[in-house]
Amino acid sequence: MTTLVIGARGAIGRHVLDGLRAAGTPVRASVRDLAKADFGPGIDVVQADLTQPDTLPAALDGVTQVFLYAEPRGAADFGKAALVAGVERVVLLSSGSVLVPWATSNPITVEHRMTEDLLTGSGPELVPIRPLVLAGNALAWASSIRSRRTVRLVHPGSVSAPIHERDIAAVALAALSGAEPQEVSALLTGAEPLTLSDQVALIAEAVGEPITVEEIGEGLAREMFGAGESPEIVDAILHFVRRGTEEGGWFKTTTAERVLGRPPVSFASWARDHAADFR
Ligand SMILES: NC(=O)c1ccc[n+]([C@@H]2O[C@H](COP(=O)([O-])OP(=O)(O)OC[C@H]3O[C@@H](n4cnc5c(N)ncnc54)[C@H](OP(=O)(O)O)[C@@H]3O)[C@@H](O)[C@H]2O)c1
Prior knowledge:
Elements: E1 2-6, H1 11-22, E2 27-31, E3 44-47, H2 56-60, E4 63-69, H3 72-85, E5 89-93, H4 107-119, E6 125-131, H5 142-148, E7 150-154, E8 159-160, H6 165-176, H7 181-184, E9 187-188, E10 194-195, H8 196-207, E11 212-216, H9 218-226, H10 231-243, H11 255-260, H12 267-273, H13 275-278
Helix pairs in contact: 1-6, 3-4, 8-12, 9-10
Bound molecules: NADP nicotinamide-adenine-dinucleotide phosphate (NAP).
NADP nicotinamide-adenine-dinucleotide phosphate binds at residues 6-7, 9-13, 31-32, 48-51, 69-71, 74, 93, 95-96, 131, 133-134, 136-137, 165.
């Protein structure tokens, strides 16, 4: 009855691991590099890399449920190894973009859709969790806020309803506890529509100091994002942010509240949880 958390050091995976431990569920944590395991004593830790299929059989030995991140390059082999190991249910951190009609062809969506497709019918029951916008995206501003108390934003009026990683993990835990797949796999968002500038203001409140927003055009944003991402991914991000300025371009759902039986954690609360990252 062991549950394996693949990516247990991740922002969401760590909350999944903590939730399983708190519930007293037998749990195993995986990391790609054992030297980075930092779970404290008493945790069964294994090395597993979804892109290295030979690492999977030992990690999956005796496991009946798995939480994992989307990795299309490893999904087919993971499905086969999970079937052989007798895994019954796989809860996959996918993306809400697979449910958004105008996002279907962007490369981020394609990767998540491909992972879902490769795991569907592989043997274990697949339950995708589909958050649309992570509150944690705001951590991309941390370095500039720490050093200059300024954020450069493209389309600062772009709206989304970001969701706290803790709530995403809570929905994943509900899925691991057997909640109705139709409920937990629905489009998952936070409760409040916020512009990017609103998010910065809430971070400023949490930090206790003013933060300036500097609006930039898509050209400069392309240069800034372009340093670490492919042009296709940069296009997808800019398209997504631009849509947030348009009617019907953002989404707010009640999935979290229906699954968790409480409202999602607010962005103000997320900002307080992460204030140290921005100081
Ligand atoms: N940004 C958004 O708005 C958005 C929207 C929808 C969905 N998502 C999804 O959310 C994810 C980010 O979640 P997060 O913030 O919790 O991520 P995170 O903190 O970056 O953690 C990612 C975890 O995935 C693990 N991992 C990556 N590649 C792996 C591999 N090949 N084999 C095994 N483990 C691997 C890492 O393991 P190690 O600890 O071993 O490095 C790490 O623990 C994105 O990747 C995306 O799929 C994001």
